[in-house]
C-alpha cells in the first residue's frame, strides 16, 4: 500500500496497472499539470460558435473557460472564466451571444475578446495597467474539421501532428450530414463519483457489453423474438478491430470507415473513437469528459445532428440517443452504476492494488502508419490511452 512516486512504476511490463491512477489525489494533481497542460484539449465544435459574439462555457481539464468568437474580428479565443479583480467567474451561461461579459461581483466588464473594458468607480485605484488585466487567454487555439481545440502550452506539436492518425476519423465524423454536423441540441450531463479515466476507457470496451448491458440485450431479444448475436459479433468478428492510433488516441472499427456509414443505421458511425485525453465519439454522440477530482467526474453528452437533413431525421437521432444514454435510457445508466461506481467501490480495497490490462496484448500487431491493431474486444484502446498518459506523466519526473 506504499504510494508510488514515479509514474513509470504504475505499470508493469505485462500490463498490470496500479489502481492508484484512479484514486490518488497526487496523481490527479500531476495529471492536471502534465496531461491537461501539455497536449491539445477539445473545447467546442464550430457549430456552437457560428456568429461573431457567440460563446460557450466549458472546462479545459479542471479549468473553467470561455470559448468565444470575437464580436469584432470573428476570431476564436479560449479564455479563463475568472475575473482578474478577485476571481469570480464572469460568465455563468452555458451558451449565448454577447459583446461583453460583466463580472457579477463588482461589475468589471470585459470585451468578448477578453480585454478589460471598464472598471466600476475606478477613481479609487491608484494605478492599474488595464491592458494587462484582460481575461487570461490560452496561448494556442486550433480547429480540425470543425472541432475546436486549445492548449495551455505556448509551444509543442501542431494540432495536426497531435491528432495524427485520428484526423481522418474526425473528418468522416464531420461529414455525416449532407452539410456536416451541428451540436445545436446542446448536451445532457451525468456526474459520477469515480475517476474520469474510467469513462474514457469504457468508451471502447467491447468486453463489457454483454455483462453490463445484459438487460438491454434481453429487451432487444424480446422485441425481435430471438437473442441478438451481438456478443458473438463483438467478441469474434474478425473484420472488427481495435486500433492504437498513437499519441493516446484509439478507435474501434466495426464497418467501413471510408464510407462513413454503418449499413444505414441512423446517426451511427462505423467506429467509436477516443481522442486523447478526454474526447470520445460513440454512435451519434460526442462525449466530453470533464475531471473534477480524483473521484468525481462530469460527462457532457452532445448528440451530433445532421446539418441539411430533415427535422424528422434529426428528431430520430435524438430519440435514439435518449433511448440508450438518457436518464431513463437502456444503456448509459448501467455504465454509470457498474463501470464507474462499482469500480470505485472495489477500488476502496487497496491492499493488493494491481489491475490487469493485458487482454489481447500478445496478439497486437503493427498496422499502417505506426498503429497497433488488435481484436474487437481486446484492451487495445486502454493500452493506447495509457501509453499516451504514461508519456505525458513521465516527462515531468516524480510525482
Ligand atoms: Fe470581478 Fe470584482 S471579482 S469585479
Ligand atoms: Fe457500456
Automatic annotation (TrEMBL):
Signal peptide region: none
Listed name of the protein: Rieske 2Fe-2S domain-containing protein
InterPro entries assigned: Rieske_2Fe-2S, Rieske_2Fe-2S_sf, Ring_hydroxy_dOase_asu_C_dom, Rng_hydr_dOase-A
Assigned keywords, A-Z: 2Fe-2S, Iron, Iron-sulfur, Metal-binding, Oxidoreductase
Cofactor(s) annotated in UniProt: Fe cation
Domain Rieske stretches: 41-150
